[in-house]
Write a structure and sequence with these properties.
Elements: E1 4-9, H1 13-24, E2 29-35, H2 38-48, E3 52-56, H3 64-73, E4 79-84, H4 89-98, E5 102-105, H5 110-121, E6 125-127, E7 130-132, H6 134-152, H7 164-174, H8 179-186, H9 190-204, H10 209-218, H11 227-230
Parallel strand pairs: 1-2, 1-3, 3-4, 4-5, 5-6
Antiparallel strand pairs: 6-7
Helix pairs in contact: 2-3, 3-4, 4-10, 7-9, 8-9, 9-10
């Protein structure tokens, strides 16, 4: 039996210990450590290299989404399962765009969570009660975002509050490009890109890049492209 190594991060000690106790009953799981905040969780991911990290979405310091995005950006091998007390499709889309392997509500049954962890450890994606491969996840994301976009659609060309240059930057962000890559593509400085990203976040009233992507996708201002993953 292949052992799956884990860390569990949540800022509520009682809930965190409950997750650890439940998963420790599984013969193929080994919990390496616990963390009380996102920064501690990220340090454990770097040092312990668990196969799966189970993270609360809302934690002090770095939140679960931010840890997930950082793990994905740095190409670390640990897969992330995000737990949330406020489960909805927009948050699920946000989680998967950030790079999560799984996303579920905190009222999940221990047996279901264990099976989700196993699926994510195998390289699959678990969200909204489904287990997907990469192509299936892409299709599900397309459907969810298109449905949300239709709900926000209005006759005529959609209004958006961004300048032409900010729209160019946003389109690059949707494609997963770093600030350095955007600067090189558009022929502008790294600081100018940062300024544009900051302006986009302020105009949308969101906290980070993935929230900005979800916000724009739902309103039909940009289209999601998974071409790189599909090829």
């Amino acid at each position: 039996m292949n052992e799956i190594t884990l860390i569990v991060a949540d800022d509520h000690p009682l809930f965190r210990q409950g997750v650890v106790d439940a998963l420790s009953l599984e013969r193929d799981f080994r919990v390496l450590a616990q963390a009380a905040n996102g920064s501690e969780a990220f340090d454990q991911i770097v040092s312990l290299k668990p196969q799966v990290a189970i993270l609360d979405v809302n934690m002090p310091g770095l939140n679960g989404q931010q840890v997930t995005h950082r793990v994905a950006s740095e190409h670390l091998p640990t897969r992330i399962v995000l737990l949330t007390g406020y489960d909805d499709i927009e948050q699920a889309i946000h989680a998967m765009l950030a790079g999560a392997g799984g996303y579920c509500a905190k009222d999940i049954e221990p047996r279901v969570l264990a099976n989700m962890v196993r699926a994510v450890a195998e390289g699959k994606f678990a969200v909204a009660g489904n287990v997907f491969n990469r192509r299936e996840l892409d299709h599900w994301m397309d459907e969810q975002i298109e449905g949300a976009r239709r709900s926000y659609s209005e006759p005529g060309a959609p209004f958006h509050p961004l300048s032409d240059r900010e729209m160019e930057v946003l389109s690059c962000v949707v494609r997963g490009m770093s600030n350095k890559e955007i600067a090189s593509l558009l022929g502008i400085s790294h600081q100018t890109v940062k300024n544009h990203v900051t302006s986009i976040l302020r105009k949308f009233g969101v906290e980070d890049r993935t929230q900005a992507v979800v916000y724009a996708l739902k309103r039909g201002w940009v289209k999601l492209q998974f071409e790189q993953e599909r090829n």
